[in-house]
Design brief:
Elements (H helix, E strand, L loop, with lengths): L4 E5 L4 H12 L5 E4 L4 H11 L6 E4 L2 E4 L3 H8 L2
Protein name: Glutaredoxin family protein
GO biological process, one term: cell redox homeostasis
GO molecular function: electron transfer activity
Length: 78
Amino acid sequence: MKNQITVYTTNTCPYCLMLKNFLNEQGLPFEEINLQNDAGAAQKLIKTTGQLGVPQAEVNGEWVLGFDRNKILELIHK
């Protein structure tokens, strides 16, 4: 199964950069949605997860709040 990964970020978040670098190092393609450029996505994120903090990642339909490499790898290999 192909993994579906969407990463929600902002321009000033160091953990967002760490998460994107980690995914790239793992060879995992992802879609990035920058909340500073997309206010609608920010509202959708709050409605969906109840959180606005970044980074958040949706990995194969499940949410990971913050940069949690172990949780991401767990969801990738599920």
